[in-house]
Amino acid sequence: MKKILVTILMVLITSNMIIMKAQKITYPETKEVVFEEDHYGFLVGDPYHWLENDTSTETAEWVKAENKVTNDYLADIPFRDKIKKRMTKLWNFKKITAPFKAGSNYLYYKNDGIQNQNVLYVKPIGTNKQERILIDPNKVWSAGTTSLASISPSNDGKYLGYGISVGGSDWEEFHVMNIATGDTLMDVIRWVKFSGMAWYGNGFYYSRYDEPKKGHELSQQNDNQKVYYHKLGTKQSEDVLFYEDLKFPFHSYGVQVTQDEHYLLLYITESTSGNALYVKDLTKPDAKLTAIIEGFGSDNNVVDNVGDKLILHTNNNAPRYRLMYINPMNPKVEHWEYLIPEQNDVMEGVSIASNRIVVKYMKDAASRLFTYDLNGGDVKEIPLATFCTVDAMNGSQKDSLLFYSYTSFTVPSIVMKHNILTNNSKVIDKPEIDFNADNYETKQVFYPSQDGTMIPMFIVYKKGLKLNGKNPTYLFGYGGFNISKTPEFKTERLVFLEQGGVFAMANIRGGGEYGEDWHRAGIKMSKQNVFDDFVAAAQYLINEKYTNSYKLAIAGRSNGGLLIGAAITQHPELFKVAIPTVGVMDMLRYHKFTIGYAWASDYGTCEDSQEMFLTLLKYSPLHNIKEGVSYPATMVTTGDHDDRVVPAHSFKFAATMQARNGGENPILIRIDSMAGHGSGKPTGKLIEEQTDIWSFVFYNLGMKMEEK
């Protein structure tokens, strides 16, 4: 006989609606269907499985009904318009990115304030010629939901390859432009995802998938990626297959060509962590791919070549990364030469400018910047502000100028020009915004998690804050995929800070803040450490009198949405408000959609072993919503074009929460149209989304919105 371990049931209802009396919210009826999966003799029910079909008429009607409930609730918040007005004013400042070199030009993005998409500009180097617009997505695609997802100039700077995305989808369509004339070539490349353009000769290498089934473009599993070479002026059907491996359908491939077009690098991954690396000498017609690193036990990235040697940024036998010289003719690990050894701080990024190597380190989740000579000596520091993040670092071996930008929690990106020869930096753009950062303080604390591990956390607040345990507080976290959460400027958070809110960001395990060891301490069987670290952050904020459970909101995106889902199902009493955004909520089926299988290096899958299945089941947010428990006021957010974390995760989670919640707090879901996982979302939609989120947070934390 089968053991019955979990079956998700709807609450009993006596009519066609579920009614929350205190808020007078009438949720749409979400039908229950019988659907069970057998895992090692355990039957797991999934009564809202039908919501996985995100293109069905039935699901569309459910989405429409849920959005109406959410919109009606938000419309009744009296200060919602005030929040939107202030949000819009704060957002409306000029923005520019750090330039990067493309042949005899510099390219960069600008936004006049609240343009839906950033505009790509070009400016000749060393002349008095004026900048000109290269691509303005706001004019080319006026609806605002088509974005310039990626760009890649050819090595000689003559052409610009660019990818466009519709509705925030990860799918890109590649095009090519002549930079000098602005003319678009005939070349069109479709069904590209997670690929750049590696220029070589009169064309480029790229990776693509086969065309998906019609109607399943946003949910079908992406497998059997292949690498092609496209020659300019030809049709995609004529592209030459460069690499595939049908024995491993879930492997992904990336190609890089060094700036001088001497070497081709092939990167092979099976998940989000670790990659194999192969090299080919393009100057030799009969050269074959030669292995530098086989297997997926380390992360390896070639910065560029200096002469006949490759510079490799790697955590192979160096959890906090090191820089090595590799001879492509003799690339085995035992023949590598040290360039810059592993340090106490994480070597996060590397660039080359003129004859200097520029290295960005991360110390306690904040950036530091240094330059070295090509032998790893003559170290010079480029001074930065306290608690900041270098968010761009653009250099070229043929240019003595390095452009970089840095940001903090209360100051948007400042663009700098650094002269490698004189070691001097100069501000070339400092945004002016309607916000006085001098009135706010950022501090970093270290608190113990449940197992005693000390976890760093940033806390931002208005100067003069009283530690009386009554301050509205917003705690943010991520904790996964070796991704580090460092100081970043988010316009929408300023509205909260201005009204006396406290913003906190915990650098929990699973991220990369202290290298690969920190990452591995929060994956697979150790994933519970991530949730424990986050809960300990909340407890610290309460114990230190920043706030209390009735004034505490928590939020996270994507893997961070999983974090929020786990936090409120494990400790519903600890939080008042929860905002899980585009979250991974079904840990038993996540790997069955689009690129989900690639997350197995962090999560494991239920198919790995019974032990892994039970581990996932124990924390999977969808499967741990309990009948009759009072959950925090929750607004789940997702997008109908999210083909990374498909919206079914959020759909099923929200439906189950509404059915089983035993308290009076609202459980809502906000489903954006023509929106994906987040990238490329137009400014107008961002302001609307953030207005709704912060209106929900303010209202349920009992805050007011004072005019500024």
Q: What this model shows, in words?
A:
The chain is of the alpha+beta class and 708 residues long. It has a domain at 3-7 and 17-88 and 436-700: 3-Layer(aba) Sandwich (Rossmann fold), CATH 3.40.50. A hairpin with a 5-residue loop joins strand 19 (252-257) and strand 20 (263-269). The longest helix has 19 residues, at 57-75. The model is unreliable at 1-23 (pLDDT under 50).
Q: Given the helix and strand composition, which structural class is it? A: alpha+beta
Helix fraction by DSSP (H/I, runs of at least 4): 10-25%
Total number of beta strands: 42
The helix count comes to 11
Shape: globular
Largest sheet, order of strands side by side? 35-36-38-37-39-40-41-42
- The CATH homologous superfamily of the domain at 3-7 and 17-88 and 436-700 is named Alpha/Beta hydrolase fold, catalytic domain
Mean pLDDT: 93
List unreliable stretches of 5+ residues. 1-23
- CATH fold descriptor of the domain at 3-7 and 17-88 and 436-700: Rossmann fold
> Any idea what the radius of gyration is?
25 Å
